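TL;DR need C-alpha cells for one chain.
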Amino acid sequence: MITDVPGVRVGHWTDRRAATGCTVVLLPEGTVASGEVRGGAPATRETALLDPTRTVTRLDAVVMTGGSAFGLASADGVMRFCEERGVGVPTPAGPVPIVVALGLFDLPVGDPSVRPGPEEGYAACVAATDGPVELGRVGAGTGATVATGEPPPAPGELPPRRPGGVVTAGARAGDLVVAALVVVNAAGVPGADDSLALDIATARAAAGSRRTLFGNTTVGVVATNATLDKVGCHVVAQGAHDGLARAIVPPHTRADGDAFVAAAVGGVEADVDVVRALAVHVVARAIASLDEPAAGAGGRGDGR
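>> reply
TL;DR here they are.
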C-alpha cells in the first residue's frame, strides 16, 4: 500500500450520490518528484513544473479528482491546507505549496453539476491518514469506469462499461519500498489479452466510426523511499506508464489523459533502474487488483 512509504498520507472526499470525489496524496518535507502525461485528453494543473529541467524539485501534494477540468479547483483547498501548516517553497511572502492536480472525466456517470472544489480538496486533506487506505469506488474513483471489451448492445450505441476505482500495490526489495496508488478510469480494458487491441481496431475500422467512448483517464502516484533526483523520478514515472500499458488494452488512447507522478521521499540509496522496474510491477499489479475481491478494511488487496 502506498502509505507503506514513510511520511506518505492519503485522504478522500466522496459524494456517492453524485458519483464523484477527490483523493489527495500528502508528501513529506524533502520529497523530490517528476512525472509524465500521456494520452490525448489530459486535465491537469502544475504538471509542467514536474519536467526535470524546471527549477523546483519538491512536491508537497498530488490531487487526483473527478469532475474533469472543473475538479482541478480542488487543488485550491489543498494549497490552503498546506499553507496553513507552513508547507511549501519558502518565499519572502510566505510558503508557496507545490500541488499537482490530475483530473479524470466522470461527468456522465452521476450528477455532472457536482464537482470537487476547494472545500472538498481541503476535506480530503483533513481525512488523510498514513494507515490503511480505503479503495474501490471512493474519492477520485467514485465515478470511475472502465471498458468491458464487450460489443455495443445495438448498432450506434456505446460499448458497455463497468466500475473502475482506486487501487494500490506495493513491493519491497530489502529496505527499498516502491508503491503505487492508481485511479483507473480507462477507455481500454483492464486485464485484457493484447489480441483485444487488434479486435477493437478492426471493429472500429469496419464501423467507420471515430466516436470515442467518453473522455477517460488513468492517473496515479508512485512513491518510494529511494533517494532520487528529479531525472530519476522522471524515469520512474515512465516506468509507471509501462505498467499501465501492461495492464490496460489499449493504453494511452486519444480519449485518455493518462498521467503519473513519481515521488521520492528519500532515505534509501537505490539504483534508479531497480526503482523503475518495481514501478512497472506495482502499477500493473494495482490495476490487476481491480478484479480482485475486497480484502478487509483496506478494500481491494494491495498486491504485495
